[in-house]
Design a protein that fits this description.
Strand order of the largest sheet: 1-2
Helix content: over 70%
Strand content: under 5%
Structural class: mainly alpha
Low-confidence stretches: 277-282
Mean pLDDT: 79
Number of strands: 2
Largest sheet: 2 strands, antiparallel
Shape: elongated
Length: about 280
């Protein structure tokens, strides 16, 4: 029986060294530079992406996911990436800054569309008397309304359940057709597109909370009449439990349909933004 000795260990280490040497030959400086530049844009977008970019997701997980996605995208982007090392460190810094700004802008767009649920939840909270019931929002790391937190968490779940995050990932992949490598983010066009997107997001928030607004107006008009008929009674204090109960009943009636409608609006808004950006660039 042969005994495993020191010479065998040396031979194994030499064999592993030869394998590692062959692997390192393929890792050229241009390849590492390409991975790094793709990671700058993808990683910046992942920091803001709904679901993955939430405050409760560890930064290490976000960066690992961005690195893996960058490695997957690198062969598809070899035609648009630089094939030579930049002549100076300043040029490399300009490339990195441009890629990071583009990635942050794309991630902020998806985050802005998701903030529609937060706006709608705050409007509903004011109409149902729950505006003072503030809770910690794990998505933003700040205080938020109870209904806004519920809407946002369910919205994130629906984004992954309906594979709406694939639309964002495809947008990142096709962003190199819109924002060419080495070019800066067009501030004028981007500002106009973001302004239109904010206007649309506010309109969607108002549409989600429209039943509560209509019922709230009618409800408070009736309470105002009662307050005039019974001036010695604090009507608006007495009706608070009824106001909360009525709001929860409306929420129960419209929650499923409202969230289904929102997720369709999320996909349409993100698609329209990318399409509008292509139109502006062309």
């Amino acid at each position: 029986m042969r005994v495993f000795g020191f010479d065998d260990m040396v031979m194994q280490f030499e064999a592993k060294g030869i394998i590692v040497e062959h692997l390192l030959k393929d890792l050229t400086i241009e390849w590492v530079l390409g991975v790094f530049l793709v990671f700058c844009r993808i990683g910046s977008a992942m920091v803001m992406m709904p679901g993955i970019g939430e405050a409760f997701v560890p930064m290490r997980i976000r960066l690992c996911f961005a690195l893996m996605f960058s490695l997957v995208m690198l062969p598809l982007l070899s035609a648009v990436l630089p094939h030579a090392v930049p002549p100076s460190a300043m040029q490399l810094a300009m490339w990195v800054m441009a890629e990071v700004l583009i990635g942050l802008a794309l991630g902020a767009v998806a985050r802005l569309i998701l903030s529609t649920l937060h706006m709608a939840g705050m409007i509903i909270a004011y109409q149902t008397g729950l505006a003072s019931a503030m809770l910690f929002d794990p998505n933003s790391g700040n205080q938020g309304s109870v209904i806004g937190n519920l809407f946002t968490m369910v919205g994130v779940v629906l984004i992954f359940e309906t594979n709406a995050h694939h639309l964002f990932l495809r947008g990142l992949a096709h962003s190199y057709d819109i924002f060419r490598f080495g070019t800066w983010l067009p501030i004028t066009d981007m500002s106009q597109a973001v302004t239109q997107l904010m206007s649309h997001s506010f309109m969607v928030a108002m549409q989600l909370s429209a039943p509560f607004i209509v019922v709230g107006i009618v409800f408070f008009l009736g309470c105002g009449v009662l307050a005039r008929l019974m001036p010695n009674m604090n009507i608006f204090f007495v009706i608070v439990p009824l106001q909360v109960l009525l709001g929860l009943f409306i929420l129960l009636a419209m929650f499923t349909a409202g969230m289904s409608w929102y997720i369709d609006s999320y996909q349409d808004s993100l698609h329209d933004f990318l399409s509008g950006t292509m139109t502006v660039q062309d």
